[in-house]
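Following the same procedure, sequence and fold were stored together, as reproduced here:

>
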Amino acid sequence: MKKRVYLIAMLSIFAVQESGWAEDKQTVQASPVTMEEVVVSATKTEEMRKDVVNSIILKDATDIDESSAESLGELLANEPGVDWRTRGGYGGASEEIRIRGMESNATQVLVNGISVNSPSLGRADVSKIPLNNIERIEVVKGAGSLLYGSGAMGGTVNIMTKRPERDETAARVRAGYGSQGSYRISVEQGMFAFGDFGYYLTAGRSETDGFRDNSDLTHNDVSLNLVFDKGDGLNISLYGEYVDREFGLPGVKPLDGTKDYFINNQKFYNDDVADLLNHGSDKDGRLVFRVRSRPVDWLAFHFTTHYVDMENYYYGRYRFNGTGDKTWVNNRVSGVEANIDITPFQGASLLLGSEYKDYDWERDNISLDNGGIEINGSKTGAESGLHTTGAFAEASYRPCNFFKALAGIRHEDHSTFGSELLPLYGLIINPLKNTVLKLSHGKHFMAPTLNDLFWPEDPYTKGNPDLKPETGHHTDVTFEQTLFDDKLFVTLSYFCWNVDDKILWDLDANWLYTPQNLNSYKADGMEAGVKIALLQNFSFAVNYTYTDAKEENEFVTRRATYTPAHQLKGDLTFWSDFGFSGMATVRYVGERDFYGSDKSITSPIETLNSYCTFDLKIEQQINDHWRLSLTANNLFDKGYDTYLASFTDQTTGERSLEGYPGAGRSIFFNVSFEY
């Protein structure tokens, strides 16, 4: 650890001594929001922002560099309508994106157009996506099932990775060290090597001890993007990435004063963490091959094929007797998609597409005795698979500058539960050049996960192949306005959605936990945001989200579990002519109700308190190559919990409801060399 500190300190000293303070530094500028911004995710074709019927969030590499966020989830948490959640703030905690009060499995997260949501769980752990590899992020809120099928109920997050630029060689090395024994090292390099052939390579490693016992993380990632670019006529790319993570799973924080507990001389918990022995790992690999071409002005086509391999390992022990399990779940997904964009005449567009995906699921389990030793003959396994086919058509027409209409439909066929028809309608009104009113209404759906369908039966649980998909509708009305040469941007949205046949794991007639179509969910709410860059060297952004989400079962209707009614976020950015810049970010999250397993109550058994965090990042550019930055997250060390779970003290027999604590204050210093 001392060697890491010494290395980073020497890099900093070398940078200052060699470079000096640059007077001709090209300073950071506020990124304006314009109606001419190009969006790809919402339509799978390039469209200007004003021509997209959905509410949209756009982030580029500059936004990522300026932010104090350490992960993709934290970056998007500052945007309207986005709720970022983790099971505590420890190193390996999975991070989930929830849009407008929906569950995390209702947000489809894509990298270069390919889903990274776990087929087993349905949700995406965005903590596994490295920020240094991202060129652009597009968040499209509202029903996205027309183009993206299952899971795009609340919206889509499409991440586009970095590509080489012509006549430009990109190279960057970053190293940083911070509190909790954390360090990060990353490198990237890209260029057109010869002619029309180019590449972009990234690699990174990070480690942290975490702020609690058994909250460590080791993360490694590498990616390579190979491109053959002949312009609009032909663009071919092959993208590959691999992520390898190992992490501890500390669980909730027991009551202060809880005594250390041992079984066979192995310590199982203390007053800091409920699980000292549990840990896991992820190994994810992806290959994406894409061909794009626009041979003539009125016709473009896009072909994609991909292969995904996701392996998750879990080692878990039971506190009550010391026994446990080793479990491996492996998901392999292969698919192909093709679409054609036809422009028969000016203002009109017709998008036709189809896709096929094949899913293979495998689960292996080995039981452990109370000493943590594998039990001979206890290995069990299960495997299954399914496939889906989707076909969609979307037509749009803009007869004049003042409005545009859109309509589309998708037919989805699932090998287990059958088929769905998914329509979408939209209207865009442009009374003025920089004024947009957007209206959209569409049906969405989400298929049961592979765990839901095929989990093997044991004495406590089993899957349910007779599940129906979750279905519903999403309505979105959005107003956007830019003023003062795009230095002021205002957005206001109203949304309303419902979900029927919500899938929940619950006891069946045989007292087995199994997934069932039990609940219904619905919500309406509003989002308001403003971005201002009117003052020299300053920009300011603030947004507010109100969500009235309700869950309904056979007994009661009540406020949705863990869903805050109010969220407020803001940031202030400053930059100077001598290369110094800073960003301050504040985030407020309201109270969240928890009901436990009792479906008959309307008053929560526990309410997680509201909380407010403050982050700060300052940065100094040194000539054209060196950059130093210091980031402080949760600067005022505010305590808060993210989820709740029961904990039983095996010494006293006392059972209590405890929280997963969010991370306290952390400091991180980073040195970057760019060429």
